[in-house]
Amino acid sequence: MSETQTDAALTDGFNLVVDALKLNGITEIYGVAGIPVTDLMRLAQEKGIHYFGFRHETSAGHAAAISGYLRQWPGICMTVSAPGFLNGMVALANATTNGFPMILISGSSDRAIVDLQQGDYEELDQMNAAKPFAKAAYRIERVEDIGIGVARAIRAALSGRPGGVYLDLPAAILPAVMDAGKGAASLIQVVDPVPASIPADSAVTRALALLAQAKRPLVILGKGASYARIETDIRQFLETTAIPFLPMSMAKGLMPDTHPQSAATARSKVLAEADVVVLVGARLNWLLGHGKPPQWAADGQFIQLDIDPVEIDSNRKIEAPVVGDIASSVRRLLQGLSATPVKAPQDWIDSIEAHKAENAKKMAARLAARPVPLNFFAALGAVSRVVQDHPEAYIVSEGANTLDVGRNLIDMALPRHRLDVGTWGVMGIGMGFAIAAAVTQQAPVIAVEGDSAFGFSGMEIETICRYNLPVTVVIMNNGGIYRGDDVNRSGDGEPGVTTLSAAARYDRMMEAFGGKGYAVTTSEDLESALREAVASRKPALINVAIDIHVGTESGHLKKLNPGAAQAAK
Q1: What is the pLDDT of residues 64-116, one digit of tens each?
Q2: φ, ψ for residue 304 (rounded to 5)?
Q3: pLDDT for the residue 8
Q4: Phi then psi for 252, rounded to 5 degrees?
Q5: SS3 547
Q6: CB of 169 within 8 A of CB of 106?
Q7: How many CA atoms are closer than 13 Å to the CA of 312, on its beta-carbon side?
Q8: Is residue 496 scored above 90 in pLDDT?
Q9: Residue 431: how many CA atoms within 13 Å on its side-chain side?
Q10: How would you classify residue 242: left for phi > 0, otherwise alpha for psi between -120 and 50, otherwise beta?
Q11: From CA 265, how far away is CA 352, in angstroms rounded?
């Protein structure tokens, strides 16, 4: 047999990894090239997988995670060994916490040397390091197991509550060869990785019976509901029952924020007074005050729809658990209304409407003001007006005051179009989320960033420009973490703890990489620049000069920061 014929009959780990990913519908990889995965990335690109090279692995991991959320299919982040892997771990842990399906694939060093701690290049036991922060972690040590390893990672990332999965590829398996026919046969196309999990009839009956006798019912929509794509069924359920709803931040748009049943502008009232609350893909964690007084009524009762039975009773008693996938559970509740009709009492609805009207008047006065220098309400009000005219745009948001005020001001009309810091409230997701949204949704993206939050991933604007993505970054620049007027208590002349550079011209960074930069000081100029930038569908950055004296220490999280009250003095 000739050498050419022999080569044609063989395949290797590089090809099997790429072929396994392609077989399972992977169309993008986000990552940072380097030893030992550079050639793997090149081959993936050669075989038709789009590769997006980032400046930092954490941002690449965030991109993969939000890609998984938007597509209901794992996003792939690929990194080098040890330090690159550890950078990607930040995003992997965040994905697991938030229920985003992603797979972090990292090259790793020689197992024999690592296990004896003999000092290999970037030596680290990566799989065991990943386990506490991932839903699952696997290592592939034989070339013939690549197909199984990829299939297991996909199934683990998607099944039950989605999450982050780590897949370790020791460098030795990539060039390892095997018979091409056997290699092709070893690959697995995953079938039905997310089978429907139907809730018990008794659970549905119990939940509807409780809801039917409620005097002040409330539905809370979480990002799990948004991920489950229940917009049609939940709308029919809510409109049939007339129950007010409250969306968590990434569930905004699942029902339009302008829908008359939205209780978002009466949040404090409905949480404190609701007697029966239906949690749909939302957890009673810190974001909801753990479901406990004084934020909640002491005698309130809960119905919880969740895929994970362990989540039930995690913070307080759940009277009516409905365990199953969110889509099936909502559908069963909707079907059950024919036997157990539910209708929110009119006096409850009227009291909420009165409260909403009162709060709307207060907000209107704030939004009517046009202060110079700008405050967050004037600046984000301008952003909101543009978003109203561009419902197709995806909004990414991070920061403290930028996030908090923007969540209240920027209405969303479509599901899964608001992407933000999620369960951990972690900063640094902005550019990775924006890039993945632009890549996967082929739509304009507006990333609304605090100046501090932007600093975590700001170099990725070069990535945005390199791939010519329709992303507009809007930086609320008040010169600090929370605000820019902090002082050094020692008096030695160095900047205060939360002080940044108020005079920074972030717009010029964008110009340096070939995008369009804007520097604005008024709400009118901000609105005009944002309209132009979104219409261009080109990379752009708007530096918005915000008064350094505005901004609340820790944003809405003052109660979590023991020193916030003192710092505000």
Answers
A1: 999 999 999 999 999 999 999 999 999 999 999 999 999 999 999 888 888 88
A2: -125, 125
A3: 66
A4: -60, 135
A5: coil
A6: yes
A7: 18
A8: yes
A9: 30
A10: left
A11: 9
